[in-house]
C-alpha cells in the first residue's frame, strides 16, 4: 500500500510538472520572439497604432484590440445570463424526463466544430441582420458576438450547473423555512452559494470567446478599422493571426507572434480581474 501511494504521488506530481513546463515553454517562446520585435517597431506604435499595412511595415494592432474587446464583451453580455438561467433550470426546475434529453443536447452543442458555427452564422445570422438593418452586409460585431454567445453557452451551462448541484440542499430548505418562495430560495440562497463555480464558468466562457477564430473570421467582416457601431465590420486579434500567418515572412511573421503575446496578456489580465472579484466576494 505504501509503494502504491508513493507511486501515484510521484505520478501526479510528474503530470503537474509537465503541465507547468508546457506553460513555461509557451511563454518563453512567445516572449522571446515578441519582445525584440516590439522594441524594433516601437511599443506605442504597435499597441496604439491604428494602421495595419504589412507591405509598408505599419503594424498597429489597436483596431484589433478594440474589436476583440467589443466582440467578447457583447458575447458574454448575451451568453452569461442565458447560460446561468439555463443552468438554474436544469439543476432545480427541469423534470427528469426532460433533463435526460436536454443535458445531452447541451453537451452536443459544445462538441460542434467552430467552422459549423461559422457556416450557421454565415447562412442564418448574417442574412437576418442584413434584412433587419437595411444597407449593411450583416458581417459585423453583432453577428460575431451572437455566434460566440451560442458557442460559450455549453461551457457556462454545464460548469454552472455542476456548481449549483454541489450546494447543500440545506441552503434551499433553510430559505423555505424562513418563508421564502421556491424561486426566491434558489436565486437568493442557492445561487449565491455557488458564485465561485459560476464565476469559473464565466472565466472559461471569456477564454473561449476571446480565443475563437474560425467562426469569427466567417461572420465578422475582417476590417482592420476601429468599429464605431455594432453593425460595423471588425477584425479580432485571433483572426488577424489566422488570416495572415500562412503567408507572413520576416518582420511580418514576428509581429504576428507579438500579436499572440498581446492576446495572451489580454486573457491573463481578464482572468486576474475575475479572480480578484472572486476573492473580494469571498
Automatic annotation (TrEMBL):
Keywords: Cell membrane, Membrane, Phosphate transport, Transmembrane, Transmembrane helix, Transport
Location of the ABC transmembrane type-1 domain: 65-274
A Gene Ontology BP annotation from the UniProt entry: phosphate ion transport
GO molecular function: phosphate transmembrane transporter activity
A GO cellular component annotation in the UniProt record: plasma membrane
Domain of life: Bacteria
CDD domains in the record: TM_PBP2
Gene3D superfamilies: MetI-like (1.10.3720.10)
Membrane topology label: Multi-pass membrane protein
Transmembrane domains' residue ranges: 7-32, 61-90, 102-129, 141-164, 255-277
SUPFAM superfamilies from the UniProt entry: MetI-like
Subcellular location: Cell membrane
Function in brief: Part of the binding-protein-dependent transport system for phosphate; probably responsible for the translocation of the substrate across the membrane.
Similarity remark: Belongs to the binding-protein-dependent transport system permease family. CysTW subfamily.
NCBIfam families assigned: phosphate_pstC
Name of the protein described by the UniProt record: Phosphate transport system permease protein
Amino acid at each position: 500500500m505504501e509503494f502504491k501511494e508513493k507511486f501515484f504521488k510521484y505520478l501526479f506530481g510528474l503530470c503537474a510538472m509537465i503541465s507547468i513546463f508546457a506553460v513555461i515553454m509557451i511563454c518563453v517562446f512567445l516572449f522571446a520572439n515578441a519582445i525584440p520585435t516590439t522594441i524594433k517597431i516601437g511599443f506605442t506604435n504597435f499597441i496604439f497604432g491604428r494602421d495595419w499595412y504589412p507591405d509598408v511595415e505599419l503594424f498597429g494592432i489597436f483596431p484589433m484590440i478594440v474589436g476583440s474587446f467589443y466582440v467578447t464583451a457583447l458575447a458574454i453580455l448575451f451568453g452569461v445570463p442565458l447560460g446561468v438561467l439555463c443552468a438554474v433550470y436544469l439543476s432545480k426546475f427541469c423534470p427528469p424526463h426532460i433533463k435526460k434529453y436536454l443535458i445531452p443536447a447541451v453537451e452536443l452543442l459544445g462538441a460542434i466544430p467552430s467552422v459549423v458555427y461559422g457556416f450557421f452564422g454565415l447562412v442564418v445570422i448574417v442574412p437576418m441582420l442584413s434584412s433587419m438593418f437595411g444597407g449593411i452586409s450583416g458581417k459585423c460585431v453583432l453577428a460575431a458576438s451572437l455566434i460566440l454567445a451560442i458557442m460559450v453557452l455549453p461551457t457556462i451551462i454545464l460548469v454552472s450547473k455542476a456548481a449549483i448541484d454541489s450546494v447543500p440542499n440545506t441552503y434551499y430548505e433553510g430559505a423555505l423555512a424562513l418563508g421564502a418562495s421556491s424561486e426566491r430560495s434558489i436565486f437568493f440562497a442557492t445561487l449565491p452559494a455557488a458564485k465561485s463555480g459560476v464565476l469559473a464558468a464565466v472565466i472559461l466562457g471569456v477564454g473561449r470567446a476571446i480565443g475563437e477564430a474560425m467562426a469569427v473570421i466567417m461572420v465578422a467582416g475582417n476590417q482592420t478599422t476601429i468599429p464605431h457601431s455594432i453593425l460595423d465590420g471588425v477584425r479580432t486579434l485571433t483572426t488577424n493571426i489566422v488570416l495572415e500567418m500562412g503567408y507572413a515572412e520576416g518582420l511580418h511573421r514576428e509581429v504576428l507572434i507579438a500579436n499572440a503575446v498581446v492576446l495572451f496578456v489580454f486573457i491573463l489580465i481578464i482572468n486576474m480581474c475575475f479572480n480578484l472579484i472572486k476573492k473580494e466576494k469571498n
